[in-house]
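Comment thread on ticket #2218

A.B. wrote:
> Attaching the input chain for the structure job we discussed in standup.
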Amino acid sequence: MSEQEIQNIVQMNTALRNENAILKEQLALLQEQYDWLKKQVFGRKSEQTSVIMDGGTQLSLFPEEKEQAVPSVVETVSVPAHQRKKKRTHEEWMSSLPVEEVRHEEEQPVCEKCGSEMKEIGEEKVYDELVYTPAKFHVRRHIAKKYKCVNCGEHPESSTEPCRIRLAEYPKPMIPHSFCSPALMAHVVYEKYVKGIPLHRQEKDFISKGISLSKATLSSWVGIAAQQWGLPIVQEMHKRLLVLNIIHGDETTVQVLHEEGRKPTTVSRMWVYANGKMNDYSIIIFEYQPTRGGEHPAAFLKDFHGYLICDGYDAYNAVTGAKRCGCWMHTRRYFVEALPKDKAAYETSVAAKAVEFCNRIYHEEGLLAELTPEERYEQRLVKVKPLLDAFFAWLEEQNVSGKGKLAKAVNYALNEKKYLCTFLEDGNVPIDNNRAENAIRPFAVGRRNWLFSNTANGAKSSAIWYSILSTAQANGLDAEKYLIDLFSHPPGTILLPWNES
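C.D. wrote:
> Ran it. Output below, let me know if you need it in another format.
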């Protein structure tokens, strides 16, 4: 065998080894994706430490000699113990409901032992039951008295004016040329945007009760009400949101079937913005946009100059006037997804130790929940900042490469380092974006039922109603009663979904 043939064999062997290494890496990545998808379908989705860790066992973050590198706490602050909210009893919440008393008596009670007639000596409550009255429909017929002037037009030979006749003043219909009432409109909107019942299911429910209301009619009513009653309120909410110091931002997908210039399969976006927990009332605003581009949050938050809490999506960098803050829950979630399948490997797992770092940060942050913003700012620098410094110093030492979930988690945390530390600047700024994620959850739940919006105008109407109803519920209002009150006012009335002191 010639030297050239040997060299060709060596080169071929090297190429095959390289190809084998690449295929092994691809196989490992596919296996990781398969395990994650299987867990999403069949496994528990909880991110609680007691679930993802074996019995909630905590790992040691540092070798014993390195633990002393974390500065000791010089000043101690007493934190009030957490008081769990007492659960209301049946008697407490039933006391606010109207009571219907049903008395049971016997005409001629006799003793079952001796047969003598028995005498009534009093009464006793034996039990309560909660009664549900199904929806009822009736027609409210508006009849206006008709009046005629007794002087005008009585003598046609001397006057060319007709008799003056007019009707008594009466409230105009909510929607011209329709039989929609405030209570009916409130019920339809509440059913769809709070309970997640699509209009076609509501149509079937109305038909089963003998009411012929088509989906097209309901959709038209909802759109008209959104523009005339809902839009002015959302615009006022937007103004009030921009003057605050903290705004949370997030977005999720929505499909619109008929939108000019776009295919029905094209994915659009529903953006959500919410104020922080430290305010007197909650504001949650949804905004429909056809794309995920950064120009949308930039336009919505054009006049905002506070702290913007969001995930690692680069589109938020387009909001030039705000100071961007990262989300520690997103950071932790990436490491949770990168945990090894075998819990026995957690002791040496980079992902497991990163999760423990995040747990420690959340634990220390939780101890500061009852402090004033000024006290929280000071204690964060003493207790939380050393943990952040230690976490990123440890993370930079890890030699992680490839395209797996662990590499993705490490790169995400390191790329977001600047934003993940911004919350240290202000005691009011939270460490995660849970506020926006919780706000967007009702929309995601409803989307499972109605699946898509038919038109862009329908998606915009949905954004309006989700904004108003999510805000009303976050402020503890009875959303359906609020809608009845709103629709009982003329169009354009600014009835904000919270109680202002």
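A.B. wrote:
> Thanks. Noting for the ticket: Strands lie at 146-148, 165-167, 246-258, 267-275, 284-289, 307-309, 323-325, 453-455.
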